[in-house]
Every structure is written in structure tokens, then in C-alpha cells.
Amino acid sequence: MGKLNKQQLQGNEGKREKLTWKDKMDEVLLNAFIEEEDKGNRIDGTWTTTAYTNSVKKLGFTINKEHVKNHLRTLKNNFGICYDFFHGNSGFGWNLDTKLFEAELSANPDMGKWKHTPISHYDKLEMLYSKDRANGKGAISAKERVRQR
């Protein structure tokens, strides 16, 4: 995987290292979590301690569980923004080569970032997190719920 790119940040209390995640690191991490899910180390959408421990080992360098949790949260949040917006809306396309969404975003200029920001492992993120996204199926209002009683 090569050397880990670290930048030293100095403070009065000592030294803290900032981890810069590379594409290959994301690939190894997501593959590890897909494997952990297959092993049953994700219960009700929550990763077990074993899943984190095994995934940290798969990365092959010294990193703590909190780094992994934070990065996984960032990946999931970015995926969620794109999935919720682009999934099921017409006029958008996913380019497998560039890993970018292709669309005219004049109606939603806030999503323009995703025309220029690749999501390298969207397919893996979709495997891990698309089932966690709300889709509105089975949703009823409080008024409808009262009527059902």
C-alpha cells in the first residue's frame, strides 16, 4: 500500500498526527467492512467491536479505531448525501469511468460539488449503506395511523 502520508501538527500539549486517507486505503477499508458484514459483525446496522478490530488489522499500519470510525462516518455521510439526492431522480447518471455524477444541476446548484468530486468506491458504499437509507415505503402520517386503529 506504500507509505502512509502523515503531517505533523504541533501544539503545546505535544504532537498530534493528522491522517490523510488515500484512495487505496479507502478501498482496503471498505472491502474489510464488506467482509465483516458477511461474517455477521454488523448487528442492526451497527458495527461490532470485532468488525473494527479486524478492519484495523486489514489496513496493515498503525491506526486506532477512532480514526476508522470517523473516516467511515465521513464516507457514509457523503454517500448518503449523494444517494438521497441522485437515487431515483431522473436526469442524473453515474459515470463508472470518472466516478462522477453527470447532470444538469441548474435546479439544484448545491449539488454541483458532486459533478467535480469523484466518489471512488460508490459501489462498495452502496453495498454497505444503501439499505440504511429511508425510502418512504411504508411511511404513514399520524392521522393515517389513528385511522388504522
From TrEMBL:
Q: Where is the Myb/SANT-like domain?
A: 20-104
Protein name in UniProt? Myb/SANT-like domain
Query: In which organism is this protein found?
Result: Dillenia turbinata
